[in-house]
Design brief:
This protein is an alpha/beta fold. It has 15 helices and 15 strands. The chain has a 10-stranded mixed sheet with strand order 11-10-9-8-7-6-12-13-14-15, covered by helices on one side.
Length: 436
């Protein structure tokens, strides 16, 4: 018998205790220091062996290999049955000049009503995703611009999706949201995602109009209008070193506005990171662990921000919210498995991180249907079993190999790892959510 290769043992951040998790057997325990030290050196007491075997911390290697294979097949089966998210970009036009726009280098920024492309997209969805659970996210650019072409485009999409009894979501900067609330409520709208990067001038400095004008007040009015008619708003905050201190202020603002007490309001935090055309100056950016360390410090000092958003800290939040470990994550990249992206040029892409980027096309849906099958298969095959660097990693079933697009940008190949700092995240998350 030997200690499992899927064990992670570490010390709770800012605490005296240790923890052990096993991402394959889905077990987790707090450990006294003497026991943790024994385990870290590969030793255990005879009286501990039965429980260690039962929990999968101590294993027969052949049996664990068989368990890994079964878990992998179960994961693939569930992933294949999972709901698909299909993104549609009607235009890359946008009225904002965000300081971190990764689409800034995209060549075409017009917005025309293209009914023939929308119909081709809907027909492709009918044919290629028949019998599959799915929904469509309307993306951009900015899909809710003023004018006839954006409105007719959205009406066409909403009517087409509603006729098919498909749900949809919209990702918008929120500036014109209030004027689209009635239209958005016609169909089966799941949510509207809106971004605020702080309160007042702090947000406006990062996300102004192209002419430099402020946007915060108009976005707030749009969120109010959407919530007032019962639409679900997913408020996203994109964080870097320039605005991390705005998190408590936005949390307080949202609470005072009554948003956080509204059942139709939810939040997410995004990391401003190096992608495609943006971020020539990367000194303002957090790496993944740096961002979470900043959030962790803020949450310990200002715990009220957890009423606005409770970060995942890898599997920590799930573990303490549900009292159990999540199922093993063999693949964190949804591209071509549970996510596809399409744009008005008639091109097909793997995901939102690649949509519109020259050279990332996987085929076309208009004016004719074509597919680059070998490239699609390469994306489909990407998971921790196909990435050489993941083979000996103890945390691979929590990391899932990360984002394929980021990995490709960094290493030049899809089957490369985009490593997540799982150990550090768990150290902070167990401390924050476990009360250690």
């Amino acid at each position: 018998m030997t200690f499992s290769r899927h064990n992670l043992i570490s010390r709770v951040r800012d605490g005296e205790g240790y923890f052990i998790v096993n991402f394959l057997s889905r077990e987790a325990d707090l450990l006294p220091a003497d026991m943790a030290e024994r385990f870290l050196s590969g030793r255990h007491l005879p009286e501990e062996e039965a429980e260690l075997v039962e929990k999968g911390y101590l294993v027969d290697e052949a049996e664990e290999t068989a368990r890994f294979r079964k878990a992998y097949l179960d994961f693939v089966d569930e992933r294949d049955k999972s709901e698909k998210q299909l993104f549609y970009v009607a235009s890359y036009a946008c009225n904002f000049a965000c300081s971190y726009c990764y689409q800034e280098g995209y060549p075409d920024h017009d917005f025309a009503y293209r009914p023939e492309v929308i119909d081709a997209f809907l027909s492709y969805v009918d044919a290629e995703f028949a019998g599959v659970r799915k929904y469509v996210t309307i993306f951009g650019g900015e899909p809710l611009l003023p004018g006839e072409a954006p409105r007719k485009t959205l009406e066409h999409l909403v009517d087409g999706l509603t006729a098919r009894k498909l749900g949809y979501a919209v990702v918008t900067n929120g500036y014109n949201l209030d004027s689209y609330v009635e239209l958005l409520g016609r169909g089966n709208l799941r949510e509207v995602q809106v971004t605020l990067d702080g309160v007042g001038a702090a947000h406006d400095a990062r996300r102004p109009l192209r002419g430099g004008q402020a946007t915060f007040d108009r976005i707030v009015a749009g969120v109010d209008a959407a919530l007032a008619v019962g639409l679900t708003v997913n408020l996203r905050m994109v964080l870097d070193k320039d605005n991390i201190d705005e998190l408590p202020r936005l949390a307080a603002f949202s609470a005072a506005r009554g948003w956080t007490s509204n059942k139709n309001f939810k939040t997410q935090l995004g990391r401003n990171y190096e992608l495609h055309y943006c971020q020539a100056d990367q000194s303002r950016l957090f790496d993944r662990v740096g961002l979470y360390e900043a959030i962790y410090a803020l949450a310990r000092e200002r715990p009220e921000i957890l009423g606005f958003h409770r970060p995942a800290f890898s599997i920590s939040r799930f573990l303490f919210d549900n009292g159990e470990m999540p199922t093993p994550l063999f693949d964190a990249c949804p591209a071509t498995k549970s996510e596809w992206a399409f744009d008005y040029t008639g091109n097909i892409y793997s995901c939102t991180a690649t949509v519109g980027k020259p050279g990332e096309e996987l085929g076309t849906f208009h004016p004719s249907i074509t597919r680059k099958e070998e490239l699609i298969e390469e994306w489909e095959d990407r998971d921790v079993t196909s990435i050489p660097e993941c083979a000996s990693c103890a945390v691979r079933l929590a990391c899932g190999g990360g984002c394929g697009s980021v990995a490709k940008n960094a290493a030049g190949r899809i089957h490369a790892p985009d490593c997540r700092p799982i150990k550090s995240l768990l150290e902070m998350g167990v401390s924050l959510y476990g009360g250690q």
